[in-house]
Amino acid sequence: MQHIYKNTDELLTALAGFFIASARKAISDNGTFSVALSGGSSPKKLYEKLASADYRDQVDWSKVYFFFGDERYVPADDPDNNALMAQKALFEPLNIPEAQVYRVNTSLSPQEAAAAYARSIKEHFTTEPARFDLVLLGLGDDAHTASLFPGTTVLQEQEATAKSVYLKDKDVYRITLTAPLINLARDIAFLVYGATKAAAVQQVLEADKNTATYPAQLIQPLYGNVHWFLDEAAAALLINK
Q1: 36 neighbors 136 (Cβ within 8 angstroms)
Q2: 3-class secondary structure for 141-161?
Q3: ω before 110 within 30° of 0 (cis)?
């Protein structure tokens, strides 16, 4: 499902509304809301909006549990750490208790960090399998999402879990939720804006299926819905809008 907006401000306002509606429904239905956040620069503006005076009182944040779709294998205090960005943009302004935030422990080895994160996810959810209420995702210029990068072995992973990923060209590790785990979510929302993302958006949504080249094509929820929140620049190359 595509939602296309004139500019970034309209896009972020719409996605903030969607986030709040998802949170309210989950809390009403089940008493809690479990969301996997996206890292990077694009969602930072969304988190700042959710923490702003216009939005902060629209959700019972004491019932919200935060996870991360992926994490860079850097120290917790590194500026590139996704959790640190969310801490400054969202958790601190909203006074979210640490017990409600599930971080990747990057002081462990990449493999141990992924295994520990998978265990913490499993322990949080009282039913099998783990199903996030909402997973927020971004899209890279190379059509990757979370840390599911083109040509990596994690793209073939069949287990709904978290895995470490080595990116040879960057000589770095990442920790990521696998596509099968993401696809169990009740709702998935891509946040993509800017002309530099237009080719990747078109490839993922309209090119022939080739998940090794366009990993975001793996995101096909089993029971829920996938929403693409786009601005006009990111949607410019789409034939079917």
Answers
A1: yes
A2: CCCCECCECCCCHHHHCCCCC
A3: no
pLDDT at 240: 84
Residue 137: beta bridge partners? 190
Strand blocks (E) in 73-223:
134-137, 162-167, 172-177, 187-192
For 83-93, how does the pLDDT look when each residue is reduced to its tens digit (9 = 90+)?
999 999 999 99
Our measurement of the distance from residue 137's CA atom to the centroid of its chain's CA atoms, rounded to an integer in Å, reads 3
Contact 143, 216 (CB under 8 A): yes
Over residues 221-233, the mean pLDDT reads 96
129 prior amide bond cis, ω within 30: yes
* Residues constituting the chain: 241
Domain residue extents for the chain? 2-230
- Distance between CA 66 and CA 88 in Å, rounded? 14
As a CATH number, domain 2-230 is: 3.40.50.1360
For strand 134-137 and strand 187-192, is the pairing parallel, antiparallel, or unpaired?
parallel
* Separation of alpha carbons 211 and 192, rounded Å: 19
Run of H or E residues at 71: strand 70-72
Structure confidence by residue, pLDDT tens digits, 161-194: 999 999 999 999 999 999 999 999 999 999 999 9
Q: What's residue 42's pLDDT?
A: 85
Provide the token pair at 165. 């990923």
